[in-house]
Specification:
With 242 residues, the chain is of the alpha/beta class. It has a single domain (3-136, 164-241), classed as Spore Coat Polysaccharide Biosynthesis Protein SpsA, Chain A (Alpha-Beta Complex), CATH 3.90.550. The protein is built from 9 helices and 11 strands. The strands form 3 sheets. It has a 7-stranded mixed beta sheet, sandwiched between helices. A two-stranded antiparallel sheet has the order 2-3. A two-stranded antiparallel sheet has the order 8-9. The termini are far apart.
């Protein structure tokens, strides 16, 4: 891919935010719980929508709730909603069908990761434009044990080779479309499907702050991080003067 083609593709990105889960582990639909004054999902939607490289943000929301969500959280401009499916891969497939036909790069992000940064998003887009597929990931910090029965340790995996996948995960359109020709309901991310189609995604440095909210405790942690970011961005000028 030439530099000119990469520059063009970076301005032709369709972002999919997967917000169609029912929050069984959380106890409620976590992506619509309030965080720092707005729903969890809207943090990542707004982060993506503000980037000139992203032409549209397609939000897949729970089927049956799409109309009420549109009314409660109206969004304009780049943002549009689609009713998701039963499984995660169904929701992504539906959102893919709603993407603009001339889109060259598809970005997929979990709505439950509200703290994603501009730096991670842009790095993943650049890497996918060059290599075809890229995912945000962080190195494992704990020793990884494999157990065949959940009771006894079968083996230990070298920690240096273990990375924890995050989102965004970004792909050239033709790559993810091919991967979704054979969707797997058990797939927990899009990279898995792409890998099964024969493509090796590039690893892009994620962040431990880009964690997925799965429990109320995670929500408290996210609130703490947001408050810390606000203090850094808007320091107390009066204290500095004193």
């Amino acid at each position: 891919m030439t530099r000119q083609a990469i520059a063009k593709s970076k301005k032709n990105v369709s972002a999919i935010v997967v917000a169609a889960g029912r929050g069984k582990r959380f106890g409620s639909i976590k992506q619509f719980v309030e965080l720092g004054g707005k729903p969890v999902y809207m943090w990542s939607v707004d982060a993506l929508a503000m980037l000139p490289q992203v032409r549209e943000v397609i939000v897949a929301v729970p089927r049956g709730l799409s109309d009420s969500i549109r009314l409660k959280y109206p969004r304009g401009g780049k943002i549009k909603y689609v009713a998701g499916g039963k499984e995660r891969c169904d929701s992504v497939r539906i959102a893919l069908a709603a993407a603009s036909r001339d889109t060259e790069i598809i970005l997929v992000h979990d709505a439950a990761r509200p703290l994603v940064s501009k730096k991670i998003i842009l790095a993943a887009i650049r890497a996918a434009a060059l290599g075809g597929a890229a995912i945000a990931a962080v190195p494992a910090t704990d020793t990884v044990k494999i157990s065949a029965d959940g009771k006894l340790v079968s083996r230990t995996v070298p920690r240096s080779s273990v990375f924890l996948a995050q989102t965004p995960q970004v792909f050239r359109r033709e790559i993810i479309m091919k991967a979704y020709e054979k969707p797997d309901p058990s797939a927990t991310d899009d990279s898995y499907l792409v890998e099964n189609s024969g493509v090796q995604p590039v690893l892009v440095a994620g962040s431990y702050e880009n964690f997925k909210i799965t429990s109320p405790r995670d929500l408290d942690a996210a609130e703490t991080i947001l408050n810390a970011r606000r203090k850094i961005k808007f320091p107390d000028i009066k204290k500095k003067i004193k």
